[in-house]
Here is the input.
Amino acid sequence: MLRYFTAGESHGEALVAFLSGMPAGLKIDQAFVDRELWRRQQGYGRGGRMKIERDTAHILSGVRHAITIGSPISLQIANRDWKNWEESLPVAAGDPAKHKRVASPRPGHADLAGALKYNFPEARYILERASARESAARVAIGALAKLFLRELGIEVLSHVITTGAVTLHEEVAWEKIRALYDQDEVLLNCADPDTEQRMKEEVDKVLRTGDSLGGVFEVVAHQVPPGLGTYAQWDERLDGLLAAAVMSLQAVKAVEIGSGVAAAFSPGSQVHDEIGYNGTPGFTAFSRAHNNAGGIEGGISNGQDIRVRGYLKPISTLRRPLQSVDFSTREPVKAAYERSDVCVVPAAGVAAEAMVALTLARCALEKFGGDSMTETLRNFQGYCQQLKNF
Ligand code: EPS
Here is the structure.
């Protein structure tokens, strides 16, 4: 079974991730992993921190001679900013006078709920772990899941549909999403250049006013075979697993599969994807009129592209802060501000790709099994043949 954990504070020495259950013999392409980390750092509207960091995955175990060996994989991503925090956030007792308190909680962040829960008088340790910096660790192990999925012919990428008040109202074909991957400069990761320009203007507006923006990203998993996940038990349904995985990302407040939200307001005749049999090569010769189901029916992948949307609230750290209360005096004050991004929709999309990839890799391993890639691929190919003979 594929299992994973992350650890690390945003301004600590490093982020760490563990990934256990990957079959032996998977080729690890370090450049691919680091490119994924680079992609997460991009986007118009990122803050000062991204100018400091150059994220790279330092693999510590589970990989030898550039292949997985079946042992748990662990890796580390150094925080370059640590050198500025060594004295104020030490592991040892250090000098309490150097501690940087977060004096008033930010509405929308974990600051207040976390301080109450963990019984700290202010929010420094809360934001250190609740910060979206943690998503870098997920992207690193998600990249390993993507390398595994690539062996099965599956690719996972994302694009941005909405930034603030600007939305792209068309279904974007896989080829256009694939083309975005090759960009050397990422603006809003939107497949339509005119819409992307209007999105940039939205970000410029909040840069001027000291506000922040949310939006919507869509993750697309291409070439997923029918049969991942099952309706047999509630916690084995692929849509449920994907929703939990994407919802677990910082700032995501809603998740949608396919056109799930619009479907709730439409009659069945306009929603369900009619079935044909036209002999087009694919996993099977069955075809669909469209893909409103987002590639999942009955909690099982149906062979169409899987489409998962994440709805992101605006970043909760505002340069023009909202009203809050001082932790010590209980007097009304403005919420704390150090520095922040103003828009992270493209980066959240990359982090969501990692969560989708890890979820699909787990489901694929549950279905096909195998302790080595040779065994997994043999089982996978046998299943593909079974689908062809159906
Ligand atoms: C982030 C690093 C953080 C923030 C951001 C994401 O760095 P710092 O707090 O040092 O500026 O830029 O964190 C948040 C959005 C948040 O809410 O905490 C990163 O690496 O993505």
Remarks:
- Residues 10, 47, 49, 81, 127, 131-133, 136, 315, 317, 339-341 surround EPS (CB under 6 Å).
- The longest strand covers residues 155-163.
- The radius of gyration is 22 Å.
